[in-house]
Amino acid sequence: MADPNAKQTGQKSVKIVAGAVVCVESDIRGDVTIGARTVVHPKARIIAEAGPIVIGDGNLIEEQALIINSYPENMLPDAEDVEPKTMSIGINNVFEVGCVSQALKIGDNNVIESKAEVGRNVILTSGCIVGACCAVNTCEVIPENTVIYGSECLRRVQTERPQPQTLQLDFLMKILPNYHHLKKTVKASSTPARS
Amino acid sequence: MATLLQPEKVLYLVRGEKKIRVPLSQLYFCRYCSELRSLECVSHEVDSHFCPSCLENMPSAEAKLKKNRCANCFDCPCCMHTLSTRATNIPAPLPDDPTKTTMKKAYYLACGFCRWTSRDVGMADKSVASGGWQEPENPHTQRINKLIEYYQQLAQREKLERDRKKLARRRPFMPQAFSQHTIHVVEKYGLGTRLQRQRSGAPISALYGLSLKEGEDQKEITIEPAQALDEVEPLPEDYYTRPVNLPEVTTLRQRLLQPDFQPAGASQLHPRHKHLLMKRSLRCRKCEHNLSKPEFNPTSIKFKIQLVAVSYIPEVRIMSIPNLRHMKESQVLLTLTNPVENITHVSLYTCEEEDPDDINSTAKVLVPSKELVLAGKDAAAEYDELAEPQGFQDDPDVVAFRKSNKIGFFIKVIPQREEGDVTVAFKLRHDFRNLAAPIRPTEEGEATSEAIWLTHHVELSLGPLAT
């Protein structure tokens, strides 16, 4: 259910597709769509201020991760000529504990490690790994399979993409409901809002 | 390194071969010479080798054979982190029946920090978890080994000649068979003996331990001299025009960590075995007693012998500094801590005019003229809530507070310069009871050993003047 064109202009609530596990303690605000088999841990925050967020399947969003679609810093929230941009996140991404992601476009199989920060103008393609505590605030498209690591954010290219965390996702989808209440999902057969 | 205590502000002077000013936490105290020693005036000896990641001990002979590298652990060639072995399941055909496939475990090396894997350089997955990984062979090993053998022989020959010359100069009735001089002579391509090593700064030859054993047959080894080539391989034609593929270029550090190959491309960076670390013991150069001897076990951080200065010398620490103004007297609060268990008497003296040690001070200091008494360190005192008052009469102008084995006292500082940092120096004189000296058995009346008075030169850096 990663259809970025289903921009429901009237939707102000969270839409969770069946199969996703989203804990009640997570803080999700605004127009957010979460795909199947995605796990959102408690205390994760997904905030859609300046536009909708569409999250694909099989993502893992850990505690205290912040995915925020916010207004660019030099613009006032009241300015009317700002068109809401959709933040789209692909499949099989991992947002580790405490990371901050403001990137508008994230592809598949990326890993944003703990306490990393990804700025708004960065576009992560697929297989990218942003290492722990690395802040990437440039205005660029990160090529595929790039690893950003170290205190100086050195880069290198790896030969294969990181493996999707299927084992971890299965485990969490079994265990989390035993300890947390989950947010209600919407039936998968629901159609987008009629125009 | 910044710490809460800021020990680098209080420096003690060590009168060794060089005069060094170091915080007390980095000094050792030789209780046989009754002097402070720093790392530069002691001799360092290797105690044992161990691998920092698997903590495996290795005897020195084995370490030398393996070129000081661990047999099991590898370093990432990209970020120098320790590599870990990971396993995957791959389908592999059964040896009996090629049509059926079964899951076999394949192991590869991976770095947790930069995500480098051994598959990046084309190393195939191994079927055993450890021991399967080989370092690439250096193509020049043969030539290097031959050269080393030749020079070993040369060194041995020169040593014999030198011995013969020395013996010929000595009186004729000296026994020639056992030449005591051999021990004292520095081997040309080897490490000098301990007596030679006392010279600080003496270079240690890189070709350690190359001397042949006594009695080995000396066969003549000849080497071919290296040949100079007229023609050099030309550069590829597109060397200047080809765009640089940045992820493929190795950094200087990655390249130089493998001096055998120095690969320019990242796809040729092979992992190397991890370097061993060593535990060292320190020995006073004057009296040859051990100052620091760690335990043999790599997992233990304790010491068998630990003669560090903080457990014998009272430590001065700066507690609070007021605003310092040029030519105005201000009071600085210092603390003195007594590390030993008996009562210590400390007196402070200002440095005299023209004191050769006093080169850094930029302010005049007035220290308390009376003797300060410090109580002994009582390990059980922190648990004893009903501690009796210690009964010391303290002058409130001098002593600010007193707490078990610590006192706070004031000194008056008058900065002499208008700009720059304020540095102050004074002499600290205290009594030291030498428990290491043997107690004379005849005089049973004396319960404690005699006290000797030690004087140290202390420098404090109090920071900049208040604007």
Automatic annotation (TrEMBL), chain A:
Any GO BP: mitotic spindle organization
CDD domains per record: LbH_Dynactin_6 (cd04646)
Key word Lipid metabolism present: no
InterPro entries: DCTN6, Trimer_LpxA-like_sf
Molecular-function GO term, any one: dynein complex binding
Function: Part of the dynactin complex that activates the molecular motor dynein for ultra-processive transport along microtubules.
Family recorded in the similarity comment: Belongs to the dynactin subunits 5/6 family. Dynactin subunit 6 subfamily.
Protein name in UniProt: Dynactin subunit 6
From TrEMBL, chain B:
Segments passing through the bilayer: none
Residues annotated as signal peptide: none
UniProt GO cellular component terms: cell cortex; centrosome; dynactin complex; myofibril; stress fiber
Protein keywords: Acetylation, Coiled coil, Cytoplasm, Cytoskeleton, Isopeptide bond, Phosphoprotein, Ubl conjugation
Matches recorded under InterPro entries: DCTN4
Subcellular localization: Cytoplasm, Cell cortex; Cytoplasm, Cytoskeleton, Microtubule organizing center, Centrosome; Cytoplasm, Cytoskeleton, Stress fiber; Cytoplasm, Myofibril
Major location category of this protein: cytoplasm
Family that this chain belongs to: Belongs to the dynactin subunit 4 family.
Subunit architecture: Subunit of dynactin, a multiprotein complex part of a tripartite complex with dynein and a adapter, such as BICDL1, BICD2 or HOOK3. The dynactin complex is built around ACTR1A/ACTB filament and consists of an actin-related filament composed of a shoulder domain, a pointed end and a barbed end. Its length is defined by its flexible shoulder domain. The soulder is composed of 2 DCTN1 subunits, 4 DCTN2 and 2 DCTN3. The 4 DCNT2 (via N-terminus) bind the ACTR1A filament and act as molecular rulers to determine the length. The pointed end is important for binding dynein-dynactin cargo adapters.
Name of protein: Dynactin subunit 4
Organism: Sinocyclocheilus rhinocerous
